[in-house]
Design a protein that fits this description.
The complex is a heterodimer.
Chain A (H helix, E strand, L loop, with lengths): L5 H23 L81 H13 L2 E9 L27 H6 L37 H9 L1 E7 L9 H17 L3 E5 L10 H13 L3 E2 L1 H4 L21 H27 L3
Parallel strand pairs in A: 1-2, 2-3, 3-4
Chain B lengths: L1 H26 L5 H13 L3 H6 L6 H10 L4 E14 L3 E14 L3 E6 L4 E7 L2 E4 L5
Classes of the chains: A alpha/beta, B alpha+beta.
């Protein structure tokens, strides 16, 4: 009697097995010959920059021993006949939570000058820089114009021509770790690396730094994606920074103009990482505060991600100034060039 | 007679349960290394991170999440994908594929990711074939 239900039980087991098999087969043996349109979160870009002038804010920096110093506490050196006694180094850098007051143009910390020297010794190209980023810094809207032989700098920026000449070829170069639609996880995905250039198993980030072998790398990933939190962004940014430093390449990190997350937590976190590693932080957020809408193009999208054409130009110009400043500072320190 | 009948029923039951178990295990993720990679690529295209993780070995799960996230900002189509085993041992296999991903970005700008020439490492974990990265 107790086995009367057995055939039924067996049929149930086999039935569920078959149904499990059937649904799973769709995953394991899909019809992959057809095109599968899936959900879209398209990002938009604009045409290339054509403007050559904008009223930039006057940028003042106070280069010091560290990248971001508290200018209020600067001490004017005096000379005395008695040799000074050794004292502990005072860390007078602005704190990460004060990131909105950090200067637009950073300076190099002693640690980064050492990194620069080490990179040169290891064969990094002193005339190359790389970009790791998304649609906000593709060459069409960022720096690309500086590699255009027909482009002429505005009168008030002529002094940066030397830097443009020195880093010629890097401005319009997209590289392996920069593309519209990229997000931080993309540059850590070997599948997304260009297999015609990159080694098997190499990530776009690894590939770019190996192929271009720069002395500086700008890391600026702004494009939001589902699941991005300040903590996850921090994990990836730290990973990218540490990888660059492992190759003796100076990472330049940047704040962003938008506040999509609502509490500026990404900029705050970026400043924390710059602080922790003593990295140069280019405070792009501060650079666009003088623009209408603080540089954010609210007419283009309601979530305030895109920046205005004027903000693009400020981005290019202030990064050029950043590069100029860091490069010359490194040269002065390493080679004693004035 | 009743005893013989009961024994026969029990043996039949055991055989059927055994068959069902085998059927289930063979149909779960990773029925073959090539099918695992095809499923993994499809999961990425469909932005189905759960399936991508389920088809990955333990060591690759975090990377599978990252790879899946990297597909979320673009429209993706997966075209004519077909994978085959390059080499295989009892618990390690290398798979290569044909086909391509097409990313549509900015409502028109297309980017292509050709799969030809890419090799995937697949290992057998807990009796199932799992995507486990790329050979270096």
């Amino acid at each position: 009697m107790r086995f009367k239900f057995i055939p039924l039980l067996v049929f149930v087991i086999i039935g569920s097995a078959l149904s499990s098999c059937s649904s799973n087969t769709e995953v394991n043996n899909p019809d992959l010959t057809k095109t599968i349109p899936v959900g879209i979160t398209p990002e938009e870009t604009e045409g290339p920059l054509t403007s050559t002038e904008t009223n930039l804010p006057e940028i003042k920096t106070t280069p010091g021993e560290t990248g971001q110093e508290n200018n209020d506490e600067n001490i004017t050196p005096t000379f005395t006949e008695v040799p000074p006694e050794p004292t502990a180094t005072v860390d007078n850098r602005l704190l990460p939570e004060e990131w909105q007051s950090w200067p637009i143009l950073p300076t190099l910390s002693p640690a980064m000058i050492e990194t620069y020297q080490l990179g040169i010794d290891l064969g990094n190209n002193s005339d190359a820089f790389s970009k790791v980023g998304d649609c906000q810094i593709i060459p069409e809207v960022f720096l690309g114009l500086y590699d255009d032989v027909n482009y002429t700098l505005p009168e008030n920026m002529k002094q940066f021509q030397e830097t443009i000449d020195h880093f010629s070829g890097s401005f319009a170069r997209e590289g392996m770790a920069l593309k519209g639609g990229f997000v931080f996880p993309t540059v850590f995905s070997p599948l997304r690396a260009d297999s015609s250039v990159c080694d098997p198993g190499e990530t776009p980030l690894e590939c770019e730094l190996r192929v271009h072998q720069p002395t500086f790398v700008l890391i600026s990933m702004e494009f939001r994606y589902e699941g991005r939190t300040a903590e996850i962004h921090e994990k990836y940014l730290r990973q990218a920074v540490e990888y660059a430093l492992s190759r003796a390449i100076i990472p330049i990190v940047a704040t962003k103009a938008d506040n999509f997350e609502g509490d500026h937590s990404l900029n705050r976190m970026t400043a924390q990482i710059a602080y922790d590693y003593d990295l140069p932080l280019w405070n792009y957020w501060l650079a666009v505060q003088f623009l209408p809408g603080h540089g954010v193009d609210w007419e283009r999208d309601s979530y305030g991600f895109h920046v205005t054409p004027d903000a693009w130009l400020v981005r290019s110009q202030t990064f050029l100034q950043t590069l100029d400043s860091l490069w010359k500072e490194a040269l002065e320190a390493v080679e004693g060039v004035n | 007679m009743n005893n013989i009948r009961q024994i026969t029923e029990r043996i039949g039951l055991l055989i059927m349960i055994l068959l069902a178990t085998l059927l289930i295990s063979s149909c779960l993720a990773g029925s073959s290394p090539a099918a695992t990679i095809e499923g993994y690529l499809l999961a990425l295209a469909e932005k189905d991170e759960n399936s991508a993780v389920n088809l990955s070995c333990v060591d690759w799960e975090e990377q599978a999440l990252a790879e899946s996230a990297s597909f979320k900002t673009v429209e993706v189509t997966l075209e004519a994908v077909e994978c085959q085993i390059d080499s295989e041992s009892s618990d390690l296999s290398f798979v290569s594929c044909n086909g391509r991903f097409v990313f549509s970005y900015d409502a028109g700008e297309e980017q292509e990711l050709v799969l030809n020439g890419r090799v995937f490492k697949v290992i057998k974990e807990a009796g199932e074939w799992r995507m486990c990265g790329y050979p270096e």
